[in-house]
Amino acid sequence: MEDMLFYDRLQFAFTITFHYIFPQLTMGLSLLIVFLKGKYLLSKIEKYNNAAKFLMNIFAINFTMGVVTGIPMEFQFGTNWAKFSELTGSVIGQTLAMEGMFSFFLESSFLALFIFGEKLMGQKLHFLTGFLVFLGSWASGWFILATNAWMQHPVGYEILENGKFVLNNFGDLFSNPWLLPAFLHNQMASVVTSSFVVASIGAFYVLRNKQVEYGKLFLKTGVIFGLVSSLLVAFPTGDWNAKNVAKHQPAAFAAMEGIFETEEAGSEIVLIGQPNMVDKKLDNKIAVPNILSFLTHQDWNKQIPGMDQFKEEELPSNIPALYYSYHIMVGLGTIFIGVMALALFFLIRKNLYTIKPLLWTIMFLVPFPYIANLTGWYTTELGRQPYLVYGLLKTSDGISPTVSSGNTLFTLLGFVALYMLLGLLFLVLVGKTINQGPTPQTH
Amino acid sequence: MEVFWYIAIAIVLAVFFILDGYDFGAGIIHLFFAKKEKDKAVITKSAGLFWDSNEVWLVAAGGMLFMAFPTFYASVFSGFYLPLIIVLWLIIFRAIGLEFRSQFKYQMWKDIWDKSFGVSSLLLALFFGIALGNIVRGVNLGDVHHGVSAHEGHYFFLPLWNTSFSPLTDHPGVIDWFTIVIGIISVVTLAIHGANWVILKTNSSINNKLKGIIFKLNIVLTVLTLFSLYLWQIVNPNSLNNFVDKPFLLVFPIIYFIGLIGLFYRKKIKKDEYAFLYSTLLILGGITSSLASLFPVILPSVNPVNESLTIYNTAAPEYGLSVALNWGIIGFILLIVYFIVQKRLLSGKIDNMDYGH
Ligand code: HDD
Ligand code: HEM
Ligand code: HEM
């Protein structure tokens, strides 16, 4: 039983982490592509069109990976979390089915047209198909976050005698107070990823002194989008999410922030420190007094409940992992704002393209938005533990009763092997595309 | 309401098998009959342009099943755990085969992905048939041993096979001699369908040869179909009762046989669209007949202890099903619009298209 749960969780965590590497770029990059394509329509400068088409090649590879790793996600609800599916299917089945109907169909029907149809359709229609792909991918984010929001903060349901959750108010699924902030934050975070990817490709071209014209265009676009989205990720959306967690999951909030003891008056904000679960304190702490209370409640002296206020079973199950995930995300977010602001400053002064250390930094920063996105999700998901549906359904009660741990381990190993291969292929193909560059090939 | 969603999901599934069926079939044809690089390239393209938008029908069917029949979804997906996960892996191999083949020009690279596409298409077709075979055969719900259920009555777990490979034991596995036959029928059917698609969408040099191949495959299919009806009687003697009680259900087998007979005239058929239509009828008839033979059961129980899963004892409550109707109808209309737009814009032979790519 114990290891059934363990392998189910490990497999879910592994496959969703891998899946989420791709959609974040899909969602963000589709916005940038539509932007460049739109710019081409308005200005008729070939450069923008080539840039859009080049990013589209990367997009296509990434999209394939997203689709093939996404299908296992949907099946896994049934295969590994059968009890959960049985009990909650009539609620979150709605949002998942709507995702298929309203977003995946939109995306996949128009993607082939967008990639292959430029000459077939003319520029305006081509732009339109690109826009529909963008719309589909963001709609997909919306529905999947609605699903997740319900698990974090269940609404619009009642529980029958046999333990089943039944929907009784459809509208509530979408007016869930958890949904909008999470959606906006998540979408901005995916724009961060795509901006950093584009800026990094730009920096690479400029540093290597090839495709320089496009390198500059990518840098400029990436830096501007990158700064705006990094700012929006922190404020208002990140802040709004934090307030939400403080309100609806106060125990998770205390753990994220690393507040072991409730302070008399306002709470300090922890910058650095290692949770010590034996002595129930933070080691080597660096903290600034009263800031957390101000950020959360706009009141320097408002008391925030620490972990000592909650019973053992109300606290998240893995506090250190939760705490680190959250601090990594926020820390990286702060760094992103700093780097992009600096880059924009030099961009305006027109010497960004010559400042090598900054270009190198931008180029090598590319894994970090991915890490920030993943740790952000880890924060959300670990904060919810030990529950699948917050406060109502334990994770251990959600697994498939008949699938033995041996079978799950077998499939987990299979996924690990297969995804290694996929990851390698992805890197090779994207690397090759970047190496070829956007200059139109004559063939 | 249950009946409505049952039919809606059946339609979505049937559309999935018809649409993705042709690219599975193209994969099988590609594996066995395409020898020249030019043919290989154009056949992969004829599947590559469409597989993604076709596969979404599967994703949609999954989502709708989850929403409308959560108990069935939970039971079947965990019960068929291993075959399902293997199907997922095959889907991945097939997709990357199609998408990544043309990324490098080396022959070796192309060969690898061609095989990946072909073999996984073949195995998927086989597995889908086997799945259908399992559904009509039924499973040991509750994993009953000596009259005692090991789990709640709607859960079960099937091994891939048991040593006897027989459907007649108390604990049939996923693969037995009955389901294998259905699996082969599925492979042959989809190969025919895929051949029709290749003829319709490409100018490949094997098109004429394919017409002859369809004829031969059709003979095989006819023999197998009759044989499987006989086997089905052995496995489940009541399998045809529904058709006796409600004779109007016979339209579904009739659809199947129209397709089967029509295809014998493949060489005479001038319009490739009509031929494609016949193999479409074949798939449609095959799936709907199997479902109709069970209705309202969706997963029969082979033991007397636990009752079969039906659309009534696995459905979500009324409220959810009826609100879903509202967005479902809008969704279906949109689907049809996308579908028409896409097929119109990408109509005609693949070879002649100018992608500007
Ligand atoms: C580039 C990625 C990125 C960056 C820089 C940030 N975040 Fe974030 N964050 C995410 C990416 C992300 C995410 C992956 O997108 C999450 C997970 C779920 C969600 O909706 O967004 C998330 C969730 C998330 C949550 C919800 C946690 C929960 O549900 O338990 C909070 C409170 C914050 N973020 C707060 C912040 C703050 C205050 C940031 C300040 C800089 C910040 N995030 C930067
Ligand atoms: C929005 C859609 C999502 C849904 C519906 C969802 C749902 C789930 C479910 C059902 C589990 C398994 C049970 C559990 O262990 O709690 C889980 C666990 C997990 N998810 Fe999510 N998830 C989503 C998004 C994500 C994303 C994008 C990530 C990371 C990139 C993620 C990271 C994890 C991790 C790490 C676990 C394991 C946590 C643990 O077992 O302690 N999730 N999630
Ligand atoms: C457990 C949760 C999840 C499930 C069940 C799931 C399911 C899927 C499926 C089935 C696909 C393939 C669709 C197709 O065939 O076109 C897919 C792709 C996609 N998913 Fe996920 N997904 C999950 C988590 C997420 C999250 C957290 C996001 C973003 C917020 C997301 C966004 C997307 C997007 C944008 C795509 C489009 C293609 C791409 O990935 O590039 N998914 N997902």
UniProtKB/TrEMBL annotation, chain A:
Source organism, top-level taxon: Bacteria
UniProt membrane topology term: Multi-pass membrane protein
Keyword Iron-sulfur set for record: no
Swiss-Prot/TrEMBL GO biological process terms: aerobic electron transport chain
KW Nucleotide-binding (keyword) present: no
Short name of one Pfam family: Cyt_bd_oxida_I
Subcellular location(s) of the protein: Cell membrane
Keywords noted in UniProt: Cell membrane, Electron transport, Heme, Iron, Membrane, Metal-binding, Transmembrane, Transmembrane helix, Transport
Transmembrane segments: 20-42, 54-71, 91-115, 127-145, 183-205, 217-235, 324-346, 358-378, 409-430
Predominant subcellular localization, coarse grouping: membrane
Molecular-function GO terms, alphabetical: electron transfer activity; heme binding; metal ion binding; oxidoreductase activity, acting on diphenols and related substances as donors, oxygen as acceptor
Cellular component annotations (GO), alphabetically ordered: cytochrome complex; plasma membrane
Family listed: Belongs to the cytochrome ubiquinol oxidase subunit 1 family.
Protein name from the UniProt record: Cytochrome bd-I ubiquinol oxidase subunit 1 apoprotein
Organism: Algibacter pectinivorans
TrEMBL record, chain B:
Record's keyword terms, sorted: Cell membrane, Electron transport, Heme, Iron, Membrane, Metal-binding, Transmembrane, Transmembrane helix, Transport
Range of residues in the leader sequence: none
Family: Belongs to the cytochrome ubiquinol oxidase subunit 2 family.
Entry superkingdom: Bacteria
Protein name: Cytochrome bd-I ubiquinol oxidase subunit 2 apoprotein
A single GO BP: aerobic electron transport chain
Classification via Pfam families: Cyt_bd_oxida_II
GO cellular component, one term: plasma membrane
TM helices/strands, residue ranges: 6-34, 55-74, 80-97, 117-136, 177-200, 212-235, 247-265, 277-299, 319-341
Keyword check for Transport: yes
Gene Ontology terms, MF aspect: electron transfer activity; metal ion binding; oxidoreductase activity, acting on diphenols and related substances as donors, oxygen as acceptor
Principal location listed in the UniProt entry: membrane
PANTHER family: CYTOCHROME BD-I UBIQUINOL OXIDASE SUBUNIT 2, CYTOCHROME BD2 SUBUNIT II
Organism expressing this protein natively: Algibacter pectinivorans
Bilayer topology: Multi-pass membrane protein
Compartment annotation: Cell membrane
